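Lab notes, practical 5.
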Amino acid sequence: MEIHALDESIHEPALLVNRLLTTNRTTDSLQALRAQAERGEGGFTLTDGLLLYNGRLVVPTDCTDETLITDLIREAHDQISSAHPGQAKTARILGQKYYWKGLYASVAQYIRNCYACKRSHVPRDRTPGLLHPLPIPDRPWQHVTMDFKSFPKDKHGYDTAYVVVDRLSKQSISIPCYKTTTAKDMARLYVSYVYRYRGAPETIVSDRGPQFISQFWGEFCRILGIQMKLSTAFHP
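Output from the prediction step:
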């Protein structure tokens, strides 16, 4: 049994080549490309019954041999001598002799799922810190969020809404304003429409827009005893 297994491993590359040649000659979906090759169009040629594209063997993507492309990429990527090259080098190795539509996408998908590459990959970014969940409100308007939402200009000339939302009740207050609203304008709107009715919250969650990171807004929140919680981009 051991000798038989060793014999199969030795002839595995040869078996893969036979699978490639057989698939290239017998796949029905390549007939249209064979017709182009006979007319000398599109860079396709026929050599000994094999369909070539610019001198490279055409590998069909819809053949009955479902693992053919995966096995071909594994043969180029998993070799000990090649040491699991990256996406560009693996695609370059295959692209010298083979062609199929979506070669780079197939190589990228295979490398993303390569366990050996994942295990040996060393992250170059800093170790991420622990997540800090937002505090759970005990009462309405204790913790709020705020942001600006743009919309087409209405008949009064407003093109933006300054939206303040209570994190507990989800009640929102939308205040019409303009895209040119500054931190001072925002503070006036907040005092007139929110603070005078709801008081000062303990925390305000917002993005890192210019109004929210300005010194004026920071001093405004400090005077009222409000803690600002700025979210990261795309992670509100």
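Observations recorded by the TA: The mean pLDDT is 87. Residues 146 and 164 are 4 Å apart (CA to CA).
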